[in-house]
Structures are given as C-alpha cells and as structure tokens.
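Deviations from the work plan: none for this task. Representative record:
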Amino acid sequence: MSEKVRATITDVARLAGVSAKSVSRVVNEEVGVSAETRLRIQAAIAELKYVANPAARRLRGASNALGLVISEFEDYAGQITHGMSQAAQHLDYNLVLYVQNMPGQPAKSYEAFINSGLINGLLMIVPYDYELLVRLCETHGIAYVLVDYEGHAPAANVPTISVTNRKGVLDAMRYLLVLGHRKIGFITGQMDKASARERLAGYEDALAEAGIARDPSLIVEGNWTQIGGLETTRVLLERHPDLTAIIGSDDLTAFGAMDAIKDAGMRVGEDISVIGFDDIPQAAGVYPPLTTVRQPMNAMGAAAVELLIAMLDERPPVSLHREFATELVIRGSTGKPPPHPPTPSP
Amino acid sequence: MSEKVRATITDVARLAGVSAKSVSRVVNEEVGVSAETRLRIQAAIAELKYVANPAARRLRGASNALGLVISEFEDYAGQITHGMSQAAQHLDYNLVLYVQNMPGQPAKSYEAFINSGLINGLLMIVPYDYELLVRLCETHGIAYVLVDYEGHAPAANVPTISVTNRKGVLDAMRYLLVLGHRKIGFITGQMDKASARERLAGYEDALAEAGIARDPSLIVEGNWTQIGGLETTRVLLERHPDLTAIIGSDDLTAFGAMDAIKDAGMRVGEDISVIGFDDIPQAAGVYPPLTTVRQPMNAMGAAAVELLIAMLDERPPVSLHREFATELVIRGSTGKPPPHPPTPSP
DNA sequence: CTGTAGTACGTCAACGTTGACGTATTCATA
DNA sequence: TATGAATACGTCAACGTTGACGTACTACAG
C-alpha cells in the first residue's frame, strides 16, 4: 500500500553496495560478477521488487514488444476489447495485452506485468484471480478499471463498468408476459457471480410484478455455456412439459436451450420462446435469430478506457462506477405462446 | 524500401533548422511557436515520417500505454491470440494490440503503429488491408508474420503460419465416404481467400479419389458465417433432397447447416451428417456436438511468435512458412447415412 | 621480480524526449 | 525613453538502462 514508487536499477545498486552496471549484469545474466556479489544483488532485487523498466531498455536498443493486428474478435470479451482498442487509438494510448492461461497463475507473473513500468493503468475484462490483481494494482499504485461482465460484486471503491443486469431480465420478462406467457423457465449463470444473481433477481421481480407465484422448479442453475443450456433445458422440459418460454442468462445458454427444444421436436419461437442475454454477434445468425438483452459492449469497452485515463490524468471522474443500460432486441426466437400447450400435462 | 531508420526529433529539427524543443512543441501542440516555423516543422515531420518514440516519452514520464488482462477469448482469432500471448510471456515479450475497425482504415493510423518504435515485429491474424500492412512493414523494416487463417495466398517470401486446408477436408471426406456417404454437399468460404479454394480442392480430391463425378450443384458458396451456412444449406436441400452429408468450410457455416437441417425436420448425424472446420470451443458444445477438422490454434499462435522472434534475433528460421497439420475430431454430428434417403427423390 | 592474462568490478555516454529555465526580440505603456 | 510584459525561440538535464571501455586485483609463467 505504501511502496508506490518503482525501484530503479540505481536503488538496487545502492542497497547492494555495487554499481548499477553490476546489477544490470546480474539481471541480464552476464558473466563477470562473483557468486557472493550476485547473491547480494539478487537479495536486493527481491527486497525492492525490482523489475527492469522496458521503456528504458527499449530506448537503449534492447527489444521486447510485438504488435498484434487483428480484424475482429467475435465473442463477448472480444467485442469489449474492440471498443477499448478504438478508444485507446483515439486517445493515443496503446494497449498491452495479457491473456491469462488459467486461474491461479503465479502472482509473480502478474506482478512483472503490473510493475514493469510499461503500463500506467490496467483494464480487466472478467479476469481470473481478480482479487489478487486488484491487490497488486493497489500495492503498486497502478490505476485500474474492472469491466464487470460477470459482476464480481466488488467493493464500492473499485472502479467498474457494468450493465443493468436486473432491469435487463425484467424487460425481457415483461415482454414475454405481454405476449401472454405465464410459465417461464429461467436458467441462471454461475451463481457465485453477482451478475448471475442480479439476472435471477430480475426474473423474480417480474413474477412479483405480474402476481405470479415463484416456482423454484422453473429455475435451474446453468454455467454460461451452450452445453449447460442444453442440459438444464432438458430438465426444465421434463419437469414442465407445458412451459412456453425460457430465459437463458447469456446467449450461449440460450443457444443450448434452442438445441434442446429442437431436439425435443418443438419449434423455437412457436412452441417455446427463448431469450438470451449479451447479444454476441452470433445471436443474430442462429436460427431462428435470438431475441436477447443487448449489452452495449463496444461502448462499455470505450467507457472503461475513458474512465481509466480520466483517473490517470487525475481528472476525478464523476463516479467510479458506470452502469450501462441494456436493450431488449426482439428477433425470431420469441412469439406468442401456442394456443394449447405443446404437450398438455395430465 | 530504403528508409529503414526511424527519424528522431533531432533529425526533424535539423531539417527544419530549429531546435529539438521546438519540434517537441509542435508535436505536443504547445504554444510558443510562430505560424511559419510551425509550418516548416510540420513539413519536415511529414517528409521524414517522424513519429515520436513512445519509449523515450514514457521514460520521460509522459504516458501512453494501458494493460489489458483478459481470461479467455472464445473465438478463432481469440484462440490464436491466446497461444501468442502465452509464447510471448514465456519469451519475455509484450504484445501490443491493435484491433482494426473496418477495412480501409487510413494508412496513417497503421503507419503510426508500425513506425512508432514501440514494437519491433508485427503479428497479423487475418487482418483487413493485409497487402498495405505488409508493404508498410517492409518500408519501415519491421519484421512480421502473417497467421494465414483465411489463406491470402501471399507471395513466397512472406512469413506465414498456415494449416493443411486441403488435406483437412480430404480427411473429412474420406471419413464420410468410409461411412457410406456418396452424395455430399460442400459449402465454401469466401472464394477470394486461398484457404477457401484449398478446402474446396480437398473436397474435389476426395471425389476424384473415390471415383465419384463432381456435381457442381452440390457446391454452394458460403461466407464463413452461420447465417450463410443456413441459407446455402437450404439451397442444397432443395436441390438434393437425397443428400446425406454436408461439409462446411468453417464451424460457423456448419452450425448454420445444422440449423437448416433441424428446421427441415431432419436429424443431424442421423438423416444428414455435418462436418465443420476449425474446432472453435463452441463446436463441442452444440447439439449434436460437431465433428470438425481441428486447427491447432494455440500452437499456431505460439509458432507465429517464435518465428517472428527468430527473425528479429536474426537466427534465420528453417523456413519462412510453417504449416500445421489438421486433425479430424469425430463427434456426434456425423454417422452412417440413413438406409433410405430421408426424402427419396422421384 | 616482471610480464601477461583473466576476473571483477566501476565510469561514462548515449538512446529520444520534454520540463525547467534562460535569452533575445518585439511591442505597448508609463 | 525607460520599463515591463509577451512571444519565440534555445539550452540543459534527466528519465533508466546498457555497451564500450577503463581499472584494480589476483594468479601464474618465465
């Protein structure tokens, strides 16, 4: 929390009682340093958490960056990234990419990235180990913004971009209710994420608003995947052959629901309506096209960059949180409920 | 082709007959420069294609980079990016991201990126305007590698990572033929891409090998999208109610084919088999799971980084091209053809 | 004991840029 | 006419690092 200043090679040299050049030799694994001196320098490096400044190295001729040009990413995180890249180009910033391999990477790896002096702020889209990353940012005095897709429900003072999860599902439900649906299944996301809980709350809000009793057997827990949507929908259909609509907590889940419905010999949008959440590019391309709650992903990415740069410029932002409104996009996967339930229950 | 050395602020200053500081003032839009001097400096900047060196700026305290941490991208380009990021972390390189908004962006924008001195090599995944980008790289003496997903059929001296497109489809066809399929539809990609043409050639190879006459009405032109797969499959099914298998030139196309087949009241993998190409993460999650030709995308990304760094280190690589083998992944979307064609033709 | 080579350091300058500060010129005002 | 202020520059140093080069010390051969 205190050591906000990056240690330089000179700091290490002073602490170890040698010249900067000797430290450089150790860092670059050159010869010409005695074993004991090397040890002393390594201790100093560890103590000060010294990481060589890539900018200085680069200026000196040593090289360490590759550019990556890409036309489009098609998925959720990619859409946000796209928005970020546009905004960054516009504001004359570069984006240095770090893709996590899996949760639980050594903190050292993150630390080298955060503490390298290469970047002055950090954007995070649904990262693994987010608490650790946030902590490292705070330790090293690096500003950051969390794009809170999966709604980790961070502390109030954590800068966040999010969407109206609850309201989004509420809108979707209202639309289904207006169409005449009464028996509506809901597939949650991973319930350890705040956004999953918020979306479920939106479903419950709508039921309450319409005076429909909450039936727990209409709610199943998915996992944000297509296969999860498929499996949970099968459960729902077995429990409730007479349900007429299903809301998935994201588009992939909804795709899986569509798969299950078709597989059961019913027609999506006629026998059973399906609504997703996100509006990834593919949502418009499936058959029938998916009705879904759109997140303005491009705008969210851009907003994240703008918020972060505002913080860096010490222009105090209006608020640390920016919540975007969702929008219901109506396509072919929804319609009026069939006059008679597809498979009347006894 | 000649101006391989980046101009510095001092070069500009010399050409304009002023001090470096004055150039700095113009570049940073500070006051204190007369209109005529400003014009002279701007001319010099344009002539030398001067772009301020971000490393020097950063060292000086001026800031211009944001980090982006992300857990996963789920689509094709994202998978490759993931492989690149891993390899780059391992080799102690950073990845600076540039996402194109659309084809035909001002060359100036690319040039600023390539000529900034920020990066020493460039990776490109299916970029728009690839000829322009390659030309800019050559002009500025920046090494590059093209990850040639859509197979732009570049000149022989262009460093490329690719896959065995032709062999991949050939393998898929052989598998279908062994299962007993004889009437197999093929949906191409965008035919201005070499990879689309190569994949089609693989289809034709297999027909020739099996002694089946090539029927042009079984070949339709898609566009690498799910909706394209849907529409072209409808055409195929209308023309050939008795076909028993369809190969799509990528997974999204195959998803669309599955949609069309289901919509026509038939069962994927039973009435009609479907094979895709790529093996994006979603392929295993659709229903039925998609049989597809896998591209080792992670390995391709890593190989691209390694090839590029080898070039930068002037370790002459074994070859400028690296072609990866595809692998047929058999899942539920394929099976034996039905004993009788689903809808016998008259 | 001198000469030579090897090892373990240190010193210095430079990479390209810009903030702080200095200086010359112009022009208006007292 | 002297004074002050504004404008248009230039000079210098520093950001953090490392290549080139210098220097001390040790070891060993002649």
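Chain A is about 40% helix and 15% strand.
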